[in-house]
Design a protein that fits this description.
With 228 residues, the protein is of the alpha/beta class. 36% of the residues lie in helices and 26% in strands. A hairpin with a 2-residue loop joins strand 1 (4-13) and strand 2 (16-26). The N and C termini lie far apart (36 Å).
Length: 228
């Protein structure tokens, strides 16, 4: 059974649709890249999957026991968020806190999960550092570790390499691919078509005239037919 199914989904604001009749499914272990121009509805779609954006039509269905609290989310950072006054350890472990749960009260299991997430991302040595003093690439690793604390099965990543230099970008892409190989299902918004074709198992291309969803091979064939 699919983890996430978007069924005939129409999304928009104030009665104006930005996505029309979108249907696709994400299964456990998939690596889906969502590509398209600015304003094509990529972030709006992620918000709908997270339950933050009500659909105008259609529905988002979670299956195979997945709950929205099981989905980790890494949004784009604002300048104020990059200057957040906390240690790396405080930022990472905050991902263990659940909505409605005790505030800043961690169980031994949650602290162990936070340490494990930092190890997976190779940032154990940064635990006592100030988050605001880190490089952009280090901050993204910290936020990925935080997202893993929030959810072990599914990660939604909104332009996780935006503004990073090519070397750090390549390192983060490798980390994300490694997490996927370890069984984490990835949904990632990206403007990097070449990286998507290299790493993703499936692509969703949102365009003004419609959308395409399919495997990497099907997408390449689709583009070839468009250019013919």
């Amino acid at each position: 059974m699919a983890l996430i199914t978007c069924d005939n989904l129409t999304l928009g604001y104030e009665g104006r649709a930005v996505l029309n009749k979108l249907s696709f499914a994400v299964h456990a272990g998939d690596y889906l890249c969502i590509v398209g121009a600015n304003g094509s509805g990529k972030t709006t779609l992620m918000r709908a999957i997270l339950g933050l954006q009500p659909p105008m039509e259609g529905q988002v269905v979670l299956g195979d026991g997945l709950k929205r609290g099981d989905i980790g989310y890494l949004p784009q950072q604002s300048a104020a968020q990059r200057d957040f006054p906390a240690s790396v350890w405080e930022v990472v472990r905050s991902g263990c806190l659940k909505p409605g749960g005790p505030l800043m009260c961690y169980t031994p299991a949650q602290l162990a999960l936070a340490r494990q997430s930092m190890q997976r991302l190779g940032i154990e040595n940064l635990a006592g550092k100030a988050y605001r003093r880190l490089s952009g690439g280090q901050q993204q690793r910290v936020l990925l570790a935080r997202a893993l604390c929030a959810a072990q099965k599914v990660l939604l990543l909104d332009e996780p390499v935006a503004g990073l230099d090519p070397q750090i970008t390549a390192e983060l892409y490798l980390l994300i691919s490694r997490l996927n190989a370890e069984g984490v299902t990835i949904l990632m918004i990206s403007h990097d078509i070449q990286a998507a074709l290299r790493d993703a198992s499936h692509l969703l291309h949102l365009q003004p005239e419609g959308w395409f969803y399919g495997t990497r091979a099907a997408y390449l064939q689709h583009r070839k037919e468009e250019l013919a």
